[in-house]
Write a structure and sequence with these properties.
Structural class: alpha+beta
Distance between the termini: 57 Å
Largest sheet: 3 strands, antiparallel
Strand order of the largest sheet: 1-2-3
Number of helices: 4
Shape: elongated
Number of strands: 3
Helix content: 25-40%
Oligomer: single chain
């Protein structure tokens, strides 16, 4: 299953004094457990389709010209555009950057495995901040400090810590 999921749950008509009315489609995007919404006009879908044709073989897009603006016809277009986006996701293991940009998904290029942890020199301050709260917090390190009710010290942990941090010291 692909990490990106999309659906178009609704649409709305917009009337403008500058141009004739148009329809805006609401796209819900779910990626890596995070959801956001983008709104796109059909003309933006059509532009995406033209750009994708240069890179991949996209599925058919619903017709550009609709004879009437009745809700039933717009609902068919909504379903067709939803299927269009979902088919692109299903048929492409690596999604094109123009597609990710269309869905407002930040694209992170995959790094070689040796660099997957990143480097401190190239990492920006903003990207190094945690995006979540810690799940578990110890008031003291349970592996370094012995429990207060222990009658015997943990010689294994003590030996490992001395071996790592004080290799020149002799054991007690």
């Amino acid at each position: 299953m692909h990490p990106v999921m999309v659906c178009i749950p609704s649409f709305r008509s917009e009337d403008s004094a500058m141009e004739k009315g148009y329809t805006v489609f609401k796209i819900d995007v779910l990626m890596s457990g995070r959801q956001h919404t983008v709104e796109k006009r059909y003309s933006q879908f059509h532009t995406l389709h033209k750009m994708l044709k240069k890179i991949i073989k996209p599925p058919e897009i619903p017709s550009k010209h609709v004879r009437n603006w009745v809700p039933r016809v717009l609902e068919q277009r909504r379903q067709g555009l939803e299927l269009y986006l979902q088919t692109i996701i299903m048929e492409n293991e690596v999604l094109p950057k123009v597609f990710l940009d269309f869905l407002n998904i930040r694209h992170f290029p995959s790094l070689p495995k040796t660099e997957s942890c990143g480097s401190f020199e190239t990492e920006s301050e903003e990207s190094s901040k945690l995006s979540h709260q810690p799940v578990l917090l110890y008031l003291r390190d349970p592996y370094v400090l012995p429990a207060t009710d222990d009658a015997c010290p943990n010689v294994v942990i003590e030996g490992v810590i001395h071996g790592i941090f004080c290799p020149d010291l002799q054991p007690r």
